[in-house]
Amino acid sequence: MCGILAVLGCSDDSQAKRARVLELSRRLKHRGPDWSGLYQHGDCFLAHQRLAIVDPASGDQPLYNEDETIVVTVNGEIYNHEELRKRLPGHRFRTGSDCEVIAHLVRAFSPTSAISIYRFPLWFHRRCKYEEYGEGFVDMLDGMFSFVLLDTRDDSFIAARDAIGITPLYIGWGLEGSVWISSEMKGLNDECQRFEVFPPGHMYTSKGGSHERWYNPPWYVEAIPSAPYDRLVLREAFEKAVIKRLMTDVPFGVLLSGGLDSSLVAAVISRHMAGTRAAEQWGTQLHSFCVDVGSPDLKAAKDVADHLGTVHHEFHFTVQDGIDAIEDVIYHTETYDVTTIRASTPMFLMSRKIKAMGVKMVISGEGSDELFGGYLYFHRAPNKEEFHRETCRKIKALHQYDCLRANKATSAWGLEARVPFLDKGFIDVAMGIDPEWKMIKPDLGRIEKWVLRKAFDDEAKPYLPKHILDRQKEQFSDGVGYSWIDGLKAHAAEHVSDKMMQHAEHISPYNTPATKEAYHYRMIFERFFPQNSARLTVPGGPSVACSTAKAVEWDAQWSKNVDPSGRAAVGVHSSAYDPTAQSLLDAKHRMTEVKASGLTG
């Protein structure tokens, strides 16, 4: 991951302003410790902090087109950049960076170009200029990305964020009319009158002055999908998603919790790594990483590592280690959401150790539970329509929770996390399946994420040990140890009194903390980010075991819940299995599955 900061139209081209932009850009240096770049054109500034993953030698940013009229600063990876380069005959590329293709695409596929004539109807060309035209090139990009592109001919710009929001991005506005765009809130919060989260799957143009959605998949609408379940199609789509993420020129590994999702990621990499770019650079021996604080995850992860033959690394931390890191975690994740902080802390600690080993990129398992309804509360989904709508709501909110956690907890140490479950093509396949197949039906032997488990249930050549393939789901923060959560609650109780809780609603009328733990995190957050705009970037509302507020309506008892832990839904999960169905599942195989955001299930 890299860090980008753009300041556009600030009406100040002085050296003092340049120095201030550079100073603010350094707040993002943890995201990109390998190189710093700053481009200025009048009162427009594009800054970049680089983490070099592809073409470390020559891919420094900002990047340019041939005549340097187009300048772009990018955070992300474009997995299909080689294919796109082939569609740009006559263009001269300066680097081997996957991100450089953006600077060339914008011109080649603008409505005034000869190439674009064959792609879009005449009426489109008559009414559009390229900077108003997102679908023409943004939707062509296959990867995770946030970027700001400046056309120096008229100082117009376009900013865009990837479909799901894997990469973080914020946008703000200064009093003098400037627009600020930053990978993290800390890059702009002190300079903007107002700022907000840049919505995933959207673009923002200087001429339009507003967000426009470029990502419009079929599942965004209310229609319930009806495609039949084909396990081979699902398997092949996921394998393709994993393999394309092996594009790297630096050492990498896989986060392995021992749960289903991260184990499948590791299994696919192990099976298909030979012949990939990563293997050519670093060999076919895969390294896997796991974190623990007194939980069953270590054994499950070791079982998977032994089955796959990975070089496995276990990291241990104490509850006190985690508590000591809480302030740093909140500063880097830029949230006060309880579940996110609980789960980010072990990832934050683990990422530091992984980076110290010389690894710069890891592949992780976020997104599976949102796509397939893997959370415990999905047992209470009343019908397939509600099941599907909840998965849609969860996917749309990923950028505020798991994507934020996976990206920022790792980027805090200059480590990049890639997430194949959130591949655009794979999402289309997974979300096109009739949700009847995803419903949890113990009487038919279908536990959570049955369609995914079945897709990789290959008796002839097993991807995973059977007890891992059948392993039950649990949130990451729970899976790394219940003592961790209990320790956090006890620590918060030492800092937040009963009297403070009595006045919580008056102190924090928005997202009022319901527990002492939530209050404690809120106080820390507001020390770093005191602006009202900052408070509004964090979502709230009732939740049980990571559900949306709408799903809380599925069970009247859930409205009384104040703890977001997966333990809140354990009774729901257990009651979903009657004694007959329970016999279908071997108890020893239903340990805790990790909903890791970097170690995801």
From TrEMBL:
- GO MF annotation terms: asparagine synthase (glutamine-hydrolyzing) activity; ATP binding
* Domain Glutamine amidotransferase type-2, first and last residues per copy: 2-209
Q: What is this protein called?
A: Asparagine synthetase [glutamine-hydrolyzing]
* Pathway as given in its UniProt record: Amino-acid biosynthesis; L-asparagine biosynthesis; L-asparagine from L-aspartate (L-Gln route): step 1/1
Q: What InterPro entries is this protein classified in? A: Asn_synth_AEB (IPR006426), Asn_synthase (IPR001962), Asn_Synthetase (IPR050795), AsnB_N (IPR033738), GATase_2_dom (IPR017932), Ntn_hydrolases_N (IPR029055), Rossmann-like_a/b/a_fold (IPR014729)
Q: Where is this site: Important for beta-aspartyl-AMP intermediate formation?
A: E366
Mind listing the UniProt keywords for this protein, alphabetically? Amino-acid biosynthesis, Asparagine biosynthesis, ATP-binding, Glutamine amidotransferase, Ligase, Nucleotide-binding
Entries under NCBIfam families matching the protein = asn_synth_AEB, PRK09431.1
The entry marks the following residues as binding L-glutamine, namely: D98
What residues sit in the active site?
Answer: C2
Pfam families for the chain: Asn_synthase, GATase_7
Q: What is its EC number?
A: 6.3.5.4
* A GO BP entry: asparagine biosynthetic process
Q: Which reaction does it catalyse?
A: L-aspartate + L-glutamine + ATP + H2O = L-asparagine + L-glutamate + AMP + diphosphate + H(+)
The residues that hold ATP are L255, V291, S364, G365
